[in-house]
Each structure stands twice: as structure tokens, then as C-alpha cells.
Write a structure and sequence with these properties.
The structure holds two protein chains of two kinds. Chain A has 29 helices and ten strands. By secondary structure, chain A is mainly α. A four-stranded parallel beta sheet of chain A has the order 4-3-5-6. A four-stranded parallel beta sheet of chain A has the order 8-7-9-10. In chain A, strand 9, helix 28 and strand 10 form a beta-alpha-beta unit. Chain B is built from six helices and no strands. Classes of the chains: A mainly alpha, B mainly alpha.
Chain lengths: 596, 110
């Protein structure tokens, strides 16, 4: 292997070189801006990257998420292959290119364009077997990328074949970047094929060179193709900041920020800015969003919400509509917490409303018992649940106090989700006082919305907060109550706040399986679809909610169960009017199946 | 004459030229649902907050429509946004959104 051109330069490298310098400068400025906008505390947190555990996690996540796209692989093999082939393949081409330069032309080390256009500048001599090895690996990765690009083009037309019902609609910047990305690798193949008889090549480049020998061996055709390759690269770099591909560099920064424990605090500063630019608009959240049951509402999904934020446009409508079921956050391959961003948006809009809760307080001091039961507003509306729970507790001979039998102070979660932290704080303090003064050791809740709130926001030290599905399951396991089996079949709906919100999937299923045959639904556990009744949404009208409830029911009733069981009074209330089968709370089912 | 306990009360008549139902109109643009209310009172009956202080969505809408903005707003001030009224409303009115917008309109009036 030796150099073909004495100066190691040809004007065709210019578009690439200028683009590269532009993008590096842009990224440096962007990174500095994001770091500067962090507050002092967060800046100090940045030093945590030097803790070995954090550094290990950061490197691991960068490799698994940015290069290999493991999370997408888990969703769909083809889709995962498409993303990782392009990302990992391209990364390998760059790394191998640099290794080639280091090995064969060490005098050119550090020249930006040399590893990229290596094959134009060298010519092969017969004794270099190592060169042949690298050429083979390079050709191999190029082939992998090309197969990924082919899949990407196919996906534009038939996205459902790659497991996506809908993909994101692109704007001008995205389209230019997309087409230039698609062009880069075929052009590279072509360019390297043209010089394959001089610089050498491997199974594809050499093959093409042999096949179209009369055309490609004409030196007049060589330079234009290398120019085109360089231009495509340059164009891609220039459009990168204005396109969704900005996620490639930003995601690395986001992973770093996340692992040092920084979180979003405003709509644009620091972490949220990194989140907004890390969105690759892959569109996985579109299919996940319950609003996408209606085609015209797709524009309110997280991917478009984040695009509005990025363009500094008004994002109030999608932020208010969101049900906050958190499914988009669950499926997001980048891990963008769009729910948090929407919440910040609501805080700006609704945070100033002043509520007056001075008359709100519990009447009488409570009897002291170890177990305190708080039903919450929604359970008060569905008394069948609290009746069933009291029946179960009586059967298990557990004495308890019902905190809100006559009057309830809301747990504050609806207020919190509406963006009014001040009001929520007031209610939290009132409830917290009553709970602590009751001297209980266990707080039993029959509503997942309250459960998440008490667990996360209340700071109840020494008091075990437990949801009734878990509590009853423990009673059954410890044989405090005995259940009989029935031949009925059921399906379980995971309430958003209990499943995705609190990570409780197994206990309710275990409990149900001990009574009857539990059927599966296509989308369950963390993929379950919101019932449509969620209090997370501020402005979703009834008609839209009904469509979501219908869609969620269709999914649940796929395997034709006799019974739809849930463990949330709100889901129960939402499903009951539209469900052709019986809907019941898990406590109701248990109280019916108890052996006297 | 025998006292029957009846007396003439002050007129409750609403003078449409003088009432200021601007808040109602303002909210109706953002949430047209507000016009669907037929004052059945399901919301007030199920209200969580009304145990502590009279909170009534039904009355608030009526009062707003009649231009008694202050009374209406003070009636909603102790709402906890728990959402029970949405679930019981026979007209499917998005009550929470209306309450938030009424209270927001008040913030803007200040």
C-alpha cells in the first residue's frame, strides 16, 4: 500500500471538509451552551462522570443505545436491524478508516478527510495482505449499511412490515438530510468501485469494478463520483442541525447528563434542551399513543409535541390533551421523558391559579389502628370496591380504620398533573398530617392514582404504602383468606399509574390466576393502553375519550374473556358503560370467590 | 289578615343588558362544552370538596351565565380537580377544563 498522490489532497474533499468543520463547531457551541445553562448544582453534578460506576454506565448505554439500538431490537427485529446496521456500520467504517490510516499511511494521521477518502489516495502493491483484510471488513460493513438503507427506503413505503403502523411526517430539513443520508453509502460504494482496480477492493467493490470494467475504468468518470460522495457527506453535515439527525450527537450528551442525575426543570434549559434535540422522530411513540386511534389526533403525539418545542412554537394544546399514561416514555428508545416536559408546560400555564383549601380538613380524630385504609375520590364513586375490601378485611380478621369514609381530601395527584404544584402541596400536607397522627404502620389504597402519589410525593417514613391488589395477594399467600376456583376466564387491564407508573404487574396477575384462567391481551403489562378516563388530561373531550376506551377494550377482549378485571376505580368506571362483558375490580372478584 | 308566612321576595330578574357574562363567553370559546350543561346537579352531588365548603359546578355555571362572576368563582376556589364530576356528568362535559379556565380567567381579571 502506498500513496498515489504526493500531496494527499484533491479539491473534491472540500465539501466534506467544510461540512465537517461546520458541524464540529456547531456541536461544540451547542454543548457549551447546554452546559452553561445548567445551574450551579447541576454543574457540580457533572463531575460525577468521573465516578467509575457512572462512567461504566455511560459507556455501556452509549454502546447499547446509540450504536446497537438494543431497545428497538426488543420491539421489532427488522426495525432494530435497520437502525443499528446504519449506526453501528457507519461507526465501524469510521473507526476502521482511521486504523487503516494509522497502519498504512501514518504520515497522514490527523487529517480529517484522509480516513474517509482513503481509497482514493492509495494504490495497492501486491505484498499487502493486511490491506486485503481491512478492505474485506470495510466492504462487509458497507454491505450491512446498504442493507439497512434498503430497509429504510422500504420502510418509507411499507412501514407496517417493520412493525410500525405510522411513521413521522417529515419537514424540509429532515427530508434533505434523509435523502443525503440515503445517497452517501451507495455513492461511497460506487466511488470505491471506481478506484478498486487501483487501490484494491474486496468482494463488492472489486466485483462491481470487474462487472462494469469498461465504464468504471474510464478515468473521466472517476472524479465526478468522488465529488458526488463528498458533496452528499457535506450536505448531510450542513443539514444535520436542522434535521432530526441531530439526535446522533445529542443523545450522547443526554446519556451523560442522565447518568449524573440531572433532570428536566424547564422547557428549554439544559437537560430538556438535550432531550428535545435527542428526539430522532423515529415515530415509535405514535403507535404507542392512545390518541393515535384517531388519525387526525396523531399530531398531538409526543414526537410532534417535542418538534413544537424545538421550533419554539406554542405547544400548549398537545401538552394539555396528553393523558399522561406514560406509554410514549416507556417505549421511547432514547428515553425522553416527554411527560415531564408536558408537565412543565402545564406548570407554566396553570401554576398561577390560586385555590383556597382553608376549610378543607378531616373532622374527627381517628381511632388508632395499625392498618389505615384510604379509598380516595374515585373509590368513593365506586363503593363496590370499598365494600369488597371491607368484606375481605373482615374475613381476614384484620381491624382497620377507614380514613375517608365520610369525607375525602383528594390525594393531590389530579392537581399535580394539572400543573398546580402549590395546590397539590396544600392537600398533601393535610392528608399527611391526618395519616401520621393516626399512628398507622400500613396505608392501604384502592386507587393506583393515589398509590403513586402517596408513594412518591408524601414522604411517609415508617409507613408502608400498599395497593390493594398487592395487599390482598399477600393475604392469600399467607392463607389469611382462602379462595375457590371458577371456570370463568378473565383478562387483566394494567392501570397506567399502577403498571407503568409504579411497576406493579405481577401481583394482580398472580392473584387472579389463583382464582380463574387469566387470558392474555396483545398489548399488556407496560404496553397496556390507557382506559381513556385518565385524569392526566386536562382538555380531552368526552368523544375522544370514548374512542380511546373503545380501542383499549378491543385490545383487552381479543381473546374473548368472560370478565375484564382491573384494579383501578377510574378504569372500572370508564370501562363499565362501554364493555359488553362484565367489568370488575380485583377486590370485587376476590370477595366473590372467598370461601366462607 | 292572617300571616301565612309568605312574603314578596326581591326580584331575581336578570337584566340581560346589564349582566356581565363575559367570563362565561370567554370560557365558552375555549371549552364549548360549557353550553351543554343542563344543570342536573350530578356534579354537585358527587363533589369531593363540597363536604368542606359549598362547591358546586352546577351553580357556578348558572351564576356565570347570570353574570354573578365573583360568586361563581368563589364557589370553585376549593375544587380539588379530582374529576368525579366528569365521570358522573350525563352530558359528558369536560368539567375540569372548564373549572381551570374559569379560574384562569379570574387570574387574568386581577
Amino acid at each position: 500500500m502506498k500513496e498515489r498522490l504526493i500531496f494527499g489532497y484533491d479539491p473534491f474533499v472540500l465539501p466534506f471538509l467544510i461540512g465537517m468543520i461546520f458541524i464540529i463547531a456547531y456541536l461544540l457551541v451547542g454543548t457549551v451552551r447546554i452546559i452553561l445553562s445548567l445551574n450551579n448544582n447541576e454543574k457540580k453534578q457533572l463531575f460525577r462522570i468521573f465516578i467509575p460506576v457512572n462512567a461504566y454506565k455511560i459507556v455501556k448505554d452509549i454502546i447499547l443505545d446509540c450504536l446497537l439500538h438494543v431497545k428497538i431490537f426488543k420491539r421489532n427485529l427488522l426495525l432494530g436491524y435497520m437502525h443499528s446496521s446504519i449506526a453501528f456500520g457507519w461507526f465501524m467504517l469510521i473507526v476502521l478508516g482511521h486504523i487503516e490510516v494509522m497502519l498504512f499511511t501514518p504520515q497522514r494521521n490527523g487529517i480529517f478527510y484522509y480516513p474517509i477518502f482513503f481509497r482514493y489516495f492509495v494504490m495497492e502493491t501486491e505484498e499487502t495482505l493486511q490491506g486485503a483484510f481491512f478492505f474485506f471488513v470495510m466492504d462487509f460493513f458497507l454491505l450491512i449499511i446498504l442493507s439497512g438503507i434498503a430497509l429504510a427506503i422500504y420502510k418509507r413505503f411499507r412501514s407496517h412490515r417493520l412493525g410500525m403502523k405510522q411513521t413521522t411526517k417529515l419537514r424540509l430539513g429532515d427530508n434533505i438530510a434523509l435523502y443525503s443520508l440515503w445517497l452517501i453509502f451507495p455513492l461511497r460504494l460506487l466511488a470505491e468501485s471506481f478506484t478498486a482496480d487501483i487501490s484494491g477492493g474486496s468482494f463488492i467493490t472489486k466485483g462491481i469494478n470487474d462487472l462494469f470494467h469498461s465504464f468504471v475504468s474510464n478515468p473521466a468518470n472517476t472524479l465526478p463520483v468522488w465529488w458526488a460522495y463528498s458533496c452528499a457527506l457535506g450536505l448531510f453535515f450542513f443539514t444535520l442541525p436542522f434535521s432530526r439527525y441531530m439526535h446522533i450527537p445529542t443523545e450522547i450528551l443526554l446519556i451523560v447528563l442522565r447518568h449524573v442525575g440531572i433532570n428536566a426543570t424547564s422547557l428549554r434549559d439544559g437537560y430538556s434542551e438535550a432531550e428535545i434535540y435527542s428526539c430522532s422522530r423515529c415515530g415509535i411513540c405514535i403507535d404507542a399513543c392512545p390518541m393515535s386511534f384517531e388519525k387526525k389526533d396523531v399530531k398531538f403525539t409526543s414526537v410532534y409535541f417535542i418538534r413544537l418545542l424545538r421550533r419554539r412554537e406554542i405547544a400548549e394544546q398537545p401538552a394539555d390533551l396528553c393523558l399522561m399514561c406514560n406509554k410514549c416514555v416507556e417505549v421511547c428508545p432514547v428515553g425522553i421523558d416527554s411527560t415531564k416536559l408536558k408537565l412543565i408546560c402545564r406548570e407554566i400555564n396553570n401554576g398561577a391559579i390560586s385555590f383556597d383549601y382553608t376549610p378543607v380538613k378531616y373532622n374527627s380524630p381517628l381511632k388508632r389502628e395499625k392498618l389505615l385504609y384510604y379509598g380516595g375520590c374515585m373509590t368513593n364513586l365506586t363503593p363496590s370496591i370499598s365494600t369488597a375490601i371491607s368484606k375481605i378485611l373482615d374475613k381476614a380478621e384484620i381491624s382497620y380504620v377507614h380514613l375517608d369514609k365520610d369525607q375525602t381530601i383528594c390525594c393531590g395527584r389530579p392537581l399535580l398533573l394539572s400543573g398546580n404544584l402549590k395546590g397539590a402541596r396544600e392537600l398533601i400536607n393535610k392528608n399527611r398530617e391526618a395519616i401520621i397522627s393516626s399512628g398507622c404502620t400500613t396505608l392501604l389504597l384502592s386507587c393506583p392514582i393515589c398509590y403513586k402519589m402517596f408513594k412518591e410525593e408524601y414522604d411517609l417514613k415508617g409507613i408502608e404504602v400498599v395497593h390493594h391488589s398487592v395487599y390482598i395477594n399477600n393475604l392469600v399467600k399467607s392463607k389469611r383468606i382462602v379462595l375457590k376456583k371458577t371456570t370463568d376466564t378473565c383478562v387483566y387491564h394494567d392501570p397506567c399509574e399502577l403498571g407503568r407508573g409504579s411497576g406493579i404487574y405481577e401481583q394482580p396477575r398472580e392473584l387472579l390466576s389463583s382464582m380463574m384462567l387469566l387470558k392474555d391481551s396483545p398489548l399488556q403489562n407496560n404496553e397496556s393502553i390507557c382506559c381513556g378516563g385518565s385524569l392526566g388530561s386536562i382538555s380531552m373531550p368526552f368523544a375522544k375519550r370514548k374512542i380511546i376506551t373503545g380501542g383499549s377494550l378491543d385490545n383487552l377482549l381479543t381473546n374473548d374473556p368472560d370478565l375484564l378485571v382491573t384494579s383501578c376505580p377510574l378504569c372500572l368506571k370508564t370501562f363499565t358503560p362501554l364493555n359488553s362483558k362484565r367489568t370488575a375490580d380485583i377486590a370485587q372478584v376476590v370477595s366473590e370467590q372467598m370461601i366462607n | 289578615m292572617t300571616e301565612f308566612g309568605f312574603k314578596l321576595s326581591q326580584s331575581n330578574r336578570i337584566d340581560l343588558d346589564e349582566t356581565d357574562n363575559s367570563v362565561f363567553k370567554k370560557v365558552a370559546i375555549i371549552v364549548p362544552d360549557i353550553k351543554l350543561c343542563f344543570n342536573c346537579g350530578s356534579c354537585s352531588a358527587s363533589c369531593t370538596s363540597t363536604h368542606f365548603k359549598r362547591v358546586s359546578f352546577r351553580s357556578a355555571i348558572l351564576l356565570l351565565n347570570r353574570g354573578h362572576n365573583k360568586e361563581a368563582i368563589s364557589m370553585l376556589k376549593s375544587c380539588m380537580l379530582c374529576g368525579k364530576c366528569i365521570l358522573v356528568c350525563p352530558r359528558g362535559i369536560d368539567t375540569r377544563n372548564i373549572i381551570i379556565n374559569i379560574l384562569k380567567a379570574e387570574e387574568e381579571m386581577k
